Amino acid sequence: MTFCFGACKGQSSFGSNELFLKQTIPMNEVKGRIDHLDANLKNQIVYIAALGNNSLEVVDLKNGKSLHSVKGLDEPQGVVYIPQTNEIMVANGGNGQCKFYNAKTLENTATIDLGSDADDVRYDSIEKKIYVGYGNGGIAVVDAVDRQKIADLKLTGHPEGFQLDKQINKLFVNVPDANQIDVIDLEELKIIARWKTEYGANFPMTVDVSHHIVFIGYRHPGKLVAINAMTGKSIAIADLISDVDDIYFDSSTNKLYASGGGGAINIFSFNNSKFTQMANIPTKTGARTSLLIPQLNAFVLAERAGGGPARLQVYSINK
Fold first, then answer.
1. pLDDT confidence tier of residue 5, bands split at 50, 70 and 90
2. CA pair distance 299, 157, nearest whole angstrom
3. Superfamily, domain 8-317
4. What average pLDDT is seen over the chain?
5. CA 73, 74, 78, 79: dihedral to nearest 10 degrees?
6. Rounded Cα distance, 78 and 198, in Å
7. Nearest to 207 by CA among 237, 175, 244, 170
């Protein structure tokens, strides 16, 4: 195993050449915590689940401005754009509802009630299925075209970050309350393995589907762990920014990007089963949610209001 010595939270700034701050887009009316983001690549639009503001924010990256705010939501947490139908689905943590919106008119087109705490979402664009984590331990499978729940999977606790590896037909789910990662067979929709975690508060996750490696971000303490997806064995560990909420793997460069509320973006390369930290770029404290958009060569960081308005920081990636 390879370690990044020294707490990443206490590191000085380095690696600023990895990202270039291209634009800052204010969201003047947005208050409170900001959760997950997704993008419409064709129109270069980012959708933001503004949890504390009970709204869905629509931001134009191309022209650098906020376009719309869909209000009246109930603690929106997960958001996904569905290009085949040009719709957005928002998962609400407060009432457990998944609400569909026409991306052009922003009219509500359908609602699925999951009961409670609808959270993170993943979209399988090939099968047109949306996976939604919710409640005290469940993942709902939703037909994105018919807008109907078609299957349900019970877990041992509330799911946080999760990822698909379609090549091996598995779904990997962080279940921090149980201190484990649940491994699900996508064909049978059942748990086939439970991996006990090495650290606490395993929230974000990303995956290298080419090499079947799962990357887990921990908060207690801040750690980044690479796991062999076939065996469940850890193969590398590095120190990580505190209060991490999003991590991403860019398969074109073998780099990982992590945003944490501790006030930094950490960037690592992953080669020969080893982490090498490339950057520790300071950010506003509390800015922990982000979105990697490799197709636009962009990394987008959401900053909540406080000492200034909420805003999106849009970085160009130096590859």
1. very low
2. 31
3. YVTN repeat-like/Quinoprotein amine dehydrogenase (2.130.10.10)
4. 96
5. -10
6. 26
7. 170
> Which residue, 81, 74, 122, 39, is CA-closest to 314?
39
| Residue 246 contacts residue 290 (beta carbons within 8 Å) | yes
- pTM (predicted TM-score): 0.95
Altogether, the residues listed in the chain come to a count of: 319
Distances (CA, A) of 114 to 81, 155, 268: 19, 15, 37
The percentage of the chain sitting over the pLDDT mark of 70, rounded to a whole number, equals 97
Question: 3-state SS of the chain?
Answer: CCCCCCCHHHCCCECHHHEEEEEEEEECCCCCCCCCEEEECCCCEEEEEEHHHCEEEEEECCCCEEEEEEECCCCEEEEEEECCCCEEEEEECCCCEEEEEECCCCCEEEEEECCCCCCCEEEECCCCEEEEEECCCEEEEEECCCCEEEEEEECCCCCCCEEEECCCCEEEEEEHHHCEEEEEECCCCEEEEEEECCCEEEEEEEEECCCCEEEEEEEECEEEEEEECCCCCEEEEEECCCCEEEEEEECCCCEEEEEECCCEEEEEEEECCEEEEEEEEECCCCCCEEEEEHHHCEEEEEECCCCCCEEEEEEEECC
Residue listed under structure tokens 């996976």 = 131
Using alpha carbons, select from 41, 116, 42, 36 the residue that is nearest to residue 79: 36
- Angle 82-133-27 (CA atoms, 0-180°, nearest 5)? 60
List the domain boundaries for the chain.
Answer: 8-317
Residue 47 and residue 82 in contact, taking contact as beta carbons nearer than 8 Å: no
**Residue-wise pLDDT tens digits, 12-66:** 999 999 999 999 999 999 999 999 999 999 999 999 999 999 999 999 999 999 9
Q: At residue 105, what are phi and psi to the nearest 5 degrees?
A: -100, -20
Spatial distance between the Cα atoms of 119 and 157, rounded to a whole number of angstroms: 13
